[in-house]
Amino acid sequence: MDSGNSRKRKHSDAVAASPLGMLVDAETARDFQLSDPALSAGGAPAGNIYSNLTLGGETRAVLGNVFYTTHNHVTPSTEQTAEEKRHEKLMETLAFDRMDFRRATIEPAHTRTCQWILEEEEFARWRDPAFRATNHGFLWIKGKPGSGKSTLMKCILNYMTRHGSECNIISFFFNARGERLERTTEGCYRSLLHQMLVAFPKLRTTIQIPQSLSKGQASSVAMLQNAFHEAVLSLQQKNLVVIIDALDECDQQEIRSMVQSLGSLAQACEMQGVTLNTCLASRHYPSITVRVCETLLMERSEGHTQDILMYARDSLAIEPDIQRKEILEQVMRKAQGVFLWVVLVVRMLNEQFDEGRSHVQLLDVTSNLPGDLVDLIGKIISDGAADPRLLPTLILIFSGDIMSTDELVSGINLIAGGASHLRGIGSAELPFMKRFIVNASKGLVEWVGGKFEDDPAHDFQFIHESVRQHIVAGGLRKLKPSLASDVKANCATYLVEWCGTSIRKRDANAARLRYNSDFIWYARRSIRRHLYTAYAEKTYDLKRLHDFPLQQHIQKGCGSPALKLSSSFLYILLHYEARRLDITVTHDLVRDLIEHCSRCSSTVQNGRTSMSCSELLLGRDLNDYCAGEYRTPLVAALSHMHHGKSY
Fold this sequence. Notes:
The structure is a single chain. By secondary structure, the chain is α/β, with parallel strands linked by helices. It folds into four domains: 4-300, P-loop containing nucleotide triphosphate hydrolases (Rossmann fold, 3-Layer(aba) Sandwich), CATH 3.40.50; 305-356; 372-540, no CATH class; 560-647, no CATH class. The chain has helices at 4-15, 26-32, 82-94, 101-104, 121-127, 132-135, 149-163, 185-199, 218-233, 252-272, 302-315, 322-335, 339-354, 359-367, 373-383, 390-398, 405-416, 430-440, 465-472, 487-509, 515-536, 550-558, 569-577, 583-599, 613-618, 633-642; strands at residues 51-55, 58-63, 66-71, 138-142, 167-173, 239-245, 275-282, 294-297, 445-447, 460-462, 603-606, 609-612. Strand 2 and strand 3 (66-71) form a beta hairpin. Helix 17 (405-416) crosses helix 18 (430-440) and helix 20 (487-509) runs antiparallel to helix 21 (515-536). The chain is globular.
């Protein structure tokens, strides 16, 4: 019987002649450690291996046969033919912001790690045409949360970019922390189709996608799915590799439908001579059975375990002695194949060593750490409860709002009450602000700014989806008991209060301190949406409208000629948030406001103007809504609801 190494050699030899052949040599180690090949430090294509194509209002940085997007929003030339304009419109229909964001922000693998995947039998069979009858070109990599699946998938993508010369490679990395299209199969299909039409321009004349394709509708997803199938089956004798990461960060039913669809597509490709290789990655749950598939479990791979040990040895900054060896052994026993657990623990041990802890004390600390990643995150939050910066940092990141580094730092300090040391801070101190935010979050937030040129405002995110999920499950309850449940709504309530505080304090602080003039921009953009969310989830009492800085909000922040000091709260909400509002919630809001007005006859001191509750609802100027179309916001809301319109 062949040994495991013998079987691997046979698979490697068989694959060498195939289109997906990858020879493991000295150059492999270097190639496999590439950071994102499409981006240099400034977000632009790096090196002289690129060619630039202008397609559909975008610059495509081309490395080998993998395509990356830089949106340029180029005005179409008047000399374009009707066909060229149709193609450009088609590309614009598919594209969306942050289409490549998750892939671009995954950190490069630690030196010399991830190379083990090339020697795994499942990976070799996936590449070997001789096994297509038993796997249909499907490989599913599964692992625990934080085990390093996304890093591995990016390494696979980078490696195949260099070595899969006869293959065309397209990819999508789901991102639960991102916007809607980043975490839905609709966004996945849009991105994959967009990449295919760049790789194969002739498909633009044959693929039919309505220019009026609506976002978020089931019919749109079905049309995109059919268009993707049509595009793949049109490749004839060409080879296509599809890499999709983090399936568990999408809705389970959507993923079930997509996986089933990809399985059917793989069978159709077999019959039509199209070579399609699909590599998926996800957690073990949700469990989706694929009858014909190679499955690779990361925690069972000795190579993955050796990668974790290599990282721990390289990163643990404790002077070598016998206790250091014991600490490493204990870390490896408790890690259970979860790379992120080791990253967090090594950082913690290094900090405590720098603070003067002895090896014996560090060994005791390690033995008392929880072995589960989520429990470890909970311990980090609990241990940092005394720092007033921790709660606002986690809530502001949890909100998912677009926020610059300046706004985030100033907001944390405003809420935590410690802004005096930020006087005079400017953009030149960006490294300081990055360290400040990472420290305030106790290492649970990471810097991603500067990696994605089109999206400079998304500077920070949680280090892993597990952090967000822990917060949703009530992980902040030790910091604020009210956050044990209804986390989204209660966070929105805190954000309303913090934004209101910023607006009210601006006059007193702006001339003296720069920090509040940064956060004020976020407060003005976001307070209406947070207030509406909190109301919709029943966590905001309408009596708090008395404290809403309405007049200051209009006078100093809105910048719209349609708004006046007499504008009501409901008018402002409708004016700015019309497309976001749920008709049922708005109906309840109008009803509750009318009931509240009928019970309250006193006046409300709101900014510099005294307003009655009825005026707060109805507004004083009957002609300031939609150029007089509806007369008042109340009439407008009732009219929309009567006609069944969605805001």
